[in-house]
Amino acid sequence: MMTTSCCGEEGGVRLKACKACMLVKYCNAACQKNHWPKHKKDCKIRAAELRDAALFKDPPLKDDCPICFLPMPRKIISCISLPPATISSVPIYDFAIAKEELANTETTQYYSCCGKSVCRGCMYSFYKSSNLGYCSFCKAERNIIGDTTVRVEEILKRVDANDPGAICTLGAYYKEGKGGLLQDRAKAIELWTEAVKLGSIQAYYCMGNIYHEGGDMKKAKFHWGAAAMAGHEIARFNLGGLELRSGNMERAMKQLRIAASSGYHEAMHVLITVFGKGVVSRELIDSTLAAYNNSCVEMRSEARDAMMRVIAETI
Hints:
Layout lengths: L15 E2 L7 E2 L2 H27 L52 E4 L4 E4 H12 L16 H13 L3 H13 L8 H13 L3 H13 L3 H13 L3 H13 L3 H13 L3 H12 L5 H18 L2 H13 L1
Antiparallel strand pairs: 1-2, 3-4
Helix pairs in contact: 2-12, 3-4, 4-5, 5-6, 6-7, 7-8, 8-9, 9-10, 9-11, 10-11
């Protein structure tokens, strides 16, 4: 029969494990509180080990576009139409560096009419078929382009239906003061917190951003970490940057490798830069470049390439 780690009580007591480390069990909250001074050090060490194990494991697959079923990149540069980087000779520096001005272009469009996020390649194909002004997924009329006030009204209907995408989007509107809404940081965080509960990875990322802007690195790191574990490669890249600036080179390289292997251009760029300074090995660069190239190939399509050419011509 199991005994608790503190009072030694036996018999018929349902023990509960410490949620942080899972190493010890207690009969009640008072027992746990009394044992904390002795347990604190071991608990924090084990909790950090468990979090790192979760943080550095392979992330889940990206979400697919509901129309073309191809994985959707966070940034357009990830699937840009360029020759793959060379991994057998010096030209590794020629990897997708062209058209970096595209890097901040949004790659998806959230439709509040149906609650779907669609890749811009599919949007481009749909609009080229004389369907401008309609949702490329549900075909609903979309005569609200540029009218954020009307869009907010539509988003609010999706919020009432507990749509995490709509809740996350509304949080972004409050954060920026868009669509006739007053800028309200606290309201944005409140909405993102709700979106997180409903499964929004983007909400975790947004919370990391807003805490980082406010100088709260602990909370920023926590929320970016949650987003990274769920597969958000830009959150992962941001964590790598924090570790790099803190001098934690090994942890930084782990984060950047995972982000680059997911097809994130900026992470690959940083790795190649530190490789040039002798910080990482050629073997690491070769293996990461191979994964980066594979991810980019998986995210490419003729429609996405065509859409990027159109955008590039307007820059």
